[in-house]
Amino acid sequence: MNPRIVTQPLAGNPLAAAFIAGNPPPGWYEPVPTDAASWRKRLESVRSDFPDNWLAKLAPAFEATGKAKERLDALGTGRGVVVTTGQQPGLFGGPIYTLSKALSALAVADALQEVTGTPVAPVFWAATDDTDFKEASSTVVSIPGGAQLLRIDHTQPLGRAMASMPLGDVSAQLEALTRAAGSTIDRTPIELLEKFYSSGQTIGSAYVSFLRALLAPLGIAVIDASHPTTRAAAKPVLSGALEKAGDIAARISERNREIEEAGFAAQVQDVPGLSLVFSSASGGRKRIPIKAANKQSASEEMGPNVLLRPVVERAILPTATYIGGPAEIAYFAQIAPIADALGVPRPTIVPRWSCTIIEPHVGTILEKLDLRPEDFADPHAVEARVARAHLPKRVLDELNATRALLDKQLDELSEAVAEESAPVSPAVTGGLRANMMRRLERFERRLVAAAKKQHADIMQEIATARGSLYPIGKPQERALNFVPLVARYGTALRDEMLGEAREHAKRLVGAQVRSRSLQEAVPVRGRS
User: How many domains does the chain have?
Assistant: First the structure.
């Protein structure tokens, strides 16, 4: 049996929800085309202002092969555009949304190509210049009875870009992932991990090599953000960001103020006195102070911060649109002032496709216990609910009756104390009530705990479902590694995911908002 793919709305950020619903504050985002005609106009505008040799210049940063190369080559010299998405490195490829993003980019590229007749290639931007070791050094796999966190230690001081952070020996972690995969239909993704996650690699290089090998057969190219060719192409934008650092800082501060006045929170916090350009000349990666910015020239040791990166990408790639998640959509509201200050095109963003993968054995558990995936968002609530449901009915009835009777008698006692002017204050009877109710609640917790032990087999099943659907307290898509799933179910899983992503893409291209796969419309806070 194959798993069930459940398309779900993106959630978790009010500003992103407002954008997806189609009612963000005006002027904060580059307008998104709403039909085939407006998309055709958008693509023509993007490709017309790009040099014909952009791909030849960036080819070394892609190192594209197979169908990925064919897809890029089909763009010709100035004939086509790209659809991009991206992510910072994640251990062994990262969580499910790495794959969700890549498939979203492919689906949107295909849909745009079909409705406009313009060649469109999907591109995954591997942000290997990122320094977040915590994010890059761990991943999660589901196992019987729960989830297992796989983590590696850093072998060099923190603060280095993942492109230069040594991977170290990850054989034990890779063995654990392989065990978690269990019986596999397609061992190819595991073999690719074994090939590329080896000694001598950096965290960034292993990630890029793995994704290229995995995604190339689908026609998805991967560009390395840390490649010298990418850095060289970014230099004009970085130079502008250094030269106009003060103006950019003022504009960002103003936009952040507008965001707060509208009732939202800025996704990326402002750091006064620092430019948007990083320097890694000293080994670590530090932002260049604004006071020193206009005295420096952009070099290949420099790179963009999170807000400048989309502007750089749009400047060096003919990007029709970026495919992003909630956090990315939120911080794109802060990007327009940066692009305007630099005199470069504003990047466009559309929401990625999102899903939950329900494996057959997990589906059986949910059906048996009458549970839904979202029930696991509340830690331990499912276990308590199911254990309580297995208590004898008479015991629960008497417990509820005791609580009601006690509550009634305490009301009468409190009333008598007040009316008869007893020599105690109302606070004393209030304390008595709290004490007795607390003891009753403690007794109920002990009953539930005993039921959990009595039904350990059911608790084990719940833990297994939790480890798949909400591992280590996070939504599945944001934590669970995708490789064991792809290995267990083969191309059938990938094709079903792509099919759902294509439906999402059709709605984006033909009707940008009000689709079932997107967030339901929500009112914009701070606006009527």
Answer: 2
Contacts with 426 (C-beta within 8 Å, 6 or more apart), sequence order: 414, 417, 418
Question: According to the 3-state scheme, what is the secondary structure of 378-419?
Answer: CCCHHHHHHHHHCCCHHHHHHHHHHHHHHHHHHHHHHHHHHH
Q: CA 152, CA 87: separation in Å to the nearest integer?
A: 19
Q: How many CB atoms lie within 10 A of CB 306?
A: 17
Residues 431 and 309 in one domain: no
Asked if the structure places residue 521 within a domain, the reply is no
Instruction: State whether 108 and 146 are in the same domain.
Output: yes
Same domain, 194 and 339: yes
Tell me what percent of the residues of the chain surpass a pLDDT of 90: 71
Q: With H, G, I as helix, E, B as strand and everything else as coil, classify residue 298.
A: coil
**C-beta atoms surrounding 375 within 10 Å:** 19
Distances (CA, A) of 502 to 102, 107, 360, 465, 499: 12, 5, 23, 28, 5
pTM of the model: 0.88
Residue 250 lies in a domain: no
Three-state helix/strand/coil letters over 263-294: CCCCCCCCCCCEEEEEECCCCCCEEEEHHHHC
| Cα torsion angle, 201, 206, 212, 214, sign | positive
pLDDT tens profile 389-441: 888 888 888 888 998 998 899 888 888 888 877 788 888 888 888 898 899 88
Which of these three, 421, 452, 471, is where a domain ends?
A: 471
Residue 138, H or E segment: strand 138-143
Give the chain's end-to-end CA distance (angstroms, integer). Answer: 49
343 part of a folded domain: yes
Q: How far apart are CA 471 and CA 95, in angstroms?
A: 11
SS3 label, residue 145: coil
Indicate if 332 and 448 belong to the same structural domain.
no
Range(s) of the domain holding residue 155:
4-236+300-353+481-510
Q: Any residues with CB less than 8 A from the CB of 282 and at least 6 apart, and which?
A: none
Residue 280, Cβ density class (10 Å: 0-12 exposed, 13-18 middle, ≥19 buried): buried
* Surface-to-core class of residue 172, CB atoms within 10 Å of its CB (0-12 exposed, 13-18 middle, 19+ buried): exposed
